[in-house]
């Protein structure tokens, strides 16, 4: 059996689809299944068992001998969350418990970290583990992810294989439930469909013109390919970046969304909300050499390719992946 936590969420539900496509059907999905808006993400998938996240470790104690691999992708992912008790419970304490269980039962583990750990990027975007304790995230979510990375690196007891993946700006199907935290592509699509225009955040940094803030946007189908590959690789444990390796502007992203929809380009700007303005990343770009160095060589979608697939095959049809 393969365990996927956060399974009704965005990336994890896409991973279940990828596993099913490779004929892995004994999937144990773990989540808070009371959140109804996420449930369409896992409908129609081949799943062996559903386990509530609060009951998972009790379940694992009884079933560990059958578990081949754990993908721990469940987390509180709202970057505007300020309740540290919630973040500590879901992003730190739960992950520590997962790590310790994988050590005890010798189960390989891949877990979700985040590019939010890099903060403003003053130390760059290299997944050099010696820099982890020096990083200064800009929000409590990023801090919770970095705190776990630091804790994991300090442990003498480790799963025989483990990988922490610093996800950059992931976009693609199955993020429909994420509301404000969904990718700009989804927000752009909805706005363009409704009124033929889209409004981007204005730059409040003199080094960047409006709309030329840059992020490493990575298509979710590329993310799950890396996850699938790591399940088979099972060596070279450590923390890895997972982005496209190519920073692109929000104007690039928006123009490509208009183009994929066959709509004329019409872009406005508004001030960045004050609650995120001083925590805003103006530039991110994953250094992907570390992942490539251990043998991962599949090409990633370009932004143009990813947006076209997402818009035309999912957003315009209402399909899930």
TrEMBL record:
Pathway connected to this protein: Nucleotide-sugar biosynthesis; ADP-L-glycero-beta-D-manno-heptose biosynthesis; ADP-L-glycero-beta-D-manno-heptose from D-glycero-beta-D-manno-heptose 7-phosphate: step 4/4
Name of the top EC class for this enzyme: isomerase
Record's catalysed reaction(s): ADP-D-glycero-beta-D-manno-heptose = ADP-L-glycero-beta-D-manno-heptose
The NAD-dependent epimerase/dehydratase domain, residue ranges: 2-243
Binding positions (NADP(+)): 10-11, 31-32, 38, 53, 73-77, 145, 170, 178
Residues bound to substrate: 169, 180, 187, 201-204, 215, 280
PANTHER family with a match to the protein in the record: ADP-L-GLYCERO-D-MANNO-HEPTOSE-6-EPIMERASE (PTHR43103:SF3), NUCLEOSIDE-DIPHOSPHATE-SUGAR EPIMERASE (PTHR43103)
Protein name: ADP-L-glycero-D-manno-heptose-6-epimerase
